[in-house]
Every structure is written in structure tokens, then in C-alpha cells.
Here is the input.
Amino acid sequence: MTLADPSSFGIAGLLCWPAFQSRSPVIHNHWLAHYGIAGRYVLFPVPPERLEQAVRGLSALGLRGCNVTTPHKQAIFPLLDRVDDLARRIGAVNTVVVEPDGTLTGFNNDGNGFIQSLRDADPAWRPDSGPILVLGAGGASRAVVASLAAQGAKEIRLCNRTTDKALEIADAIGSVVKVVPWDQREDALDGIAMLANATSLGMTGKGPLPMPLDRLPAHAIVGDLIYLPPETPLLAAARARGNITVNGLGLLLNQARPAFNAWFGVMPEITPALQQAIAATF
Ligand code: ATR
Here is the structure.
């Protein structure tokens, strides 16, 4: 029997620290039940000083793989046998696959998951539909910008309160990224096909994003990586103007699909029942 024998009980999980109320177990355990696959997705709170031991144990314990979140997304790089190009450009891994020979491969599906959720909401939009404005330059922004560039975006305007962090992303991703000063973010709305908020502004407990939308084109799709609250003030204002809007739940669901497929051999669907199961966790 190989480690990936589909008849065996499949285990995957989330390496995190500290433990938190992740929605990933709800998503993956829903799919395991739905597709009749014997297995379980569990949380593995692992302190940073034990990450190496935990990762070395993945194959020995017969796990199919794992997700990785704060604070392990960068620290895990040297512990993997290979990391795919996109995850390398993003500089963070969110998914690990234990290969049949026991070696470990790292991926990052966050940015592609976000892009897919936009395409689900507006099938007419594509990354190369027109200029894109991304606000924020943290880890989430970098995943989105790198994935947009990899999917053919022609111009990504990147705007962050701390300009140096935007310049770092532009350096890493290439000339498709044009850095815009924070105080010129309104001008940068001109002619865009997509606006994404990757700052933490608009999140429950934080102030709203100061972003007047008067110059937002009518056809532009607006995405926010935040899902708490489900509709940020930015998304509410965009929806009131008639723009199509997408919150961060779509990212969470769509990044999980290729991970589940790699671990359990089925590309799962995002059904209304799954969306209800997630909504019930709020
Ligand atoms: P993540 O990993 O989720 O991207 P992060 O790295 O903490 O989180 O990034 C938070 C983003 O929100 C950053 O772009 C941050 O801007 P700075 O790089 O200038 O810190 C942005 N952000 C947070 N609070 C902000 C505020 N009050 N005004 C403008 N931007 C803010």
C-alpha cells in the first residue's frame, strides 16, 4: 500500500499558531462527507519552535498534506522538498501536498482563489480585461498581485499607505506592477476594470477604508479580501453604485478546491449547502 492509497483513511489539517476558529475544517469535512471519502481535516496548533518536527512527521503519519497559516507561511519553505513557482514569487506557502513517495511540495492558492471568486461573480471579467487597482501591500496583497500577474494582468496599480512595501512587491513581481502614492488612490480609479481591497481597513473593529468611489467605472468589479463583516463599507458603497462586488469568503472556498483535489483526488464543488454551512459559523 502506498501512502496515497485512496482506500485508506485520509487525514489533512491546518498548521497554525495559536489555535483559532478556522473555517477550513468546515469546508473540507463537508466535502469529505459529500463525496463519501473516509477522512478528516483537523487543526494542528504547532508552536514555531516545533514546526520542523511537525512537518517532518507529515509523511510518517500518513497525512495527505496540510494547509499552513500564520506564523508558518514563510518559515516552512526550507522544510519542503519543492515549492512551486507562484508560491515562490508570493513568498509564502498555504498548501502542502505529501507526494506518494513521501516528499513535500508547497503551493499558494490564495491569489488564484480570489481571482476565481471574481470570475464566478462576473464571468465577463478576466485578469487582462483592463487596469486593476489593488490597495494594500501585506501578505494577502502580494498573493493577489502575483497571481493576477501570472494570469495575464496587463497593468496592476498598487497603492499602499507605506509606499516602500508596494515598491518591494513591484520589484518582486515585475513591471506590470505600477506603484501609486496612497494620496493618489482616487486618481488611480480612472479606467479600471477591477478594484481590490487587500488592506485590513473595513474589517470588524477597524475603521472604514477612506476611498471615494465617484470615479469608479460602472463596469468595474470590486473585491474585498475581508469576510468579516460579510459586506465592508467599501463593498456596500460599490454595490449601491451598481458595481458587482465580492467578499473574501470566495477566496477561502476557492483556495480550498485545488488543495482538496490534491489530497483526496476529487475537484470539489462550492454548492449552496456548503455556503450555508459556512454562513452558519458566523
Ligand atoms: P495581510 O497579511 O493580511 O495582508 P498585513 O501584512 O498586516 O496583513 O497588511 C495590512 C495592510 O493593511 C497593509 O497594506 C497596511 O498598510 P501599511 O503597509 O502601510 O501598514 C494596511 N493598513 C492597515 N491599517 C491601515 C490604515 N489605517 N490606513 C491605511 N492602510 C492600512
The pocket of 2'-monophosphoadenosine-5'-diphosphate is lined by residues 136-141, 160-162, 165, 198-201 (CB under 6 Å). The radius of gyration is 19 Å.
